[in-house]
Amino acid sequence: MNETEHAKARPRWGMVIDLDRCDACQGCTTACQTENNIPPPTPQSAAQDRSIRWMELLPNVEGEYPRVKLRLIPRPCMHCDKPPCIKVCPVGATAIGAEGIIAQVYARCIGCRYCTTACPYTARYFNWYPPRWPEQLSQSLNPDVSVRPRGVVEKCSFCHHRLQKARDKAAAEKRELRPGEYLPACVEACPTKAMFFGDLDDPRSEVAQLARSPRSFRLLEDLGTEPKVFYLREGE
Fold it and tell me: Mean pLDDT of all residues in the chain?
């Protein structure tokens, strides 16, 4: 694909996370929670394991005692090219867009939770409680993101509202969307620059080149879901 053809094609958004750079500071999880109006966990939700975390650090234990190494792996929604969650939703509340982002239509969701069962990455969360924030945080909600009601499934959207804002700005200036102009909050907030985001179908983009790296791997790749989140192995 030449440059002219790629400029007319739709991007396929994806992410690469370098585990050699990640120090598990949880900056990505905090940025995600603040950006997307995710209610903070309460003692009750934490005790019942019903807290909502669109971006989570998954523990991965390597080796055998006494030479054990614990690695924390950031895990957003994988935005799979072949997502099993879409196949089981009876009302079409979850769908894949033309640019590969898996969307959750809250107005359609009936809370049957079939998609949470089908997702092998446990990246979907059912909203068991009406969302509440401490008084000091109630005025800091992001007006670009809806507050989800009780009884729906919610998940990472690659901060799709940021894409819409970047597109509107580019359209107003009568130009194409520039590389790096659209970044999810987790990528922008990472202090060690361990997260990369961009068009996986653009061979010139950094994210596409890193995804083809010998260090690259994907979680549960043998399931055939074709996730668009790649990881780079440590120390190689």
Answer: 91
pLDDT tops 50 at residue 136: yes
For residue 179, give Cα distances in angstroms to 40, 115, 198: 33, 32, 7
Q: What is the pLDDT of residues 164-221, one digit of tens each?
A: 999 999 999 999 999 889 999 999 999 999 999 999 999 999 999 999 999 999 999 9
Instruction: Check if the beta carbon of residue 57 is closer than 8 Å to that of residue 25.
Output: no
From the list 195, 177, 178, the residue with the least C-alpha distance to 186 is: 195
CB 21 within 8 A of CB 235: no
Cα separation of 212 and 159, whole Å? 24
Q: Please give the backbone phi and psi of residue 214, each rounded to the nearest 5 degrees, phi first.
A: -60, -20
SS3 29: helix
How far apart, in whole angstroms, are the C-alpha atoms of residue 185 and residue 191? Answer: 12
Q: State the pLDDT at residue 68.
A: 86
- Report d(CA 134, CA 232) in Å as an integer: 38
The domain made up of 3-232 has a fold known as: Alpha-Beta Plaits (3.30.70)
pTM above threshold 0.85: yes
Cβ pair 202, 99 in contact under 8 A: no
Whole-number Cα distances in Å, 56 to 59, 74, 77, 226: 10, 6, 10, 20
Cα distances (Å, whole numbers) of residue 159 to 1, 99, 115, 234: 28, 13, 20, 27
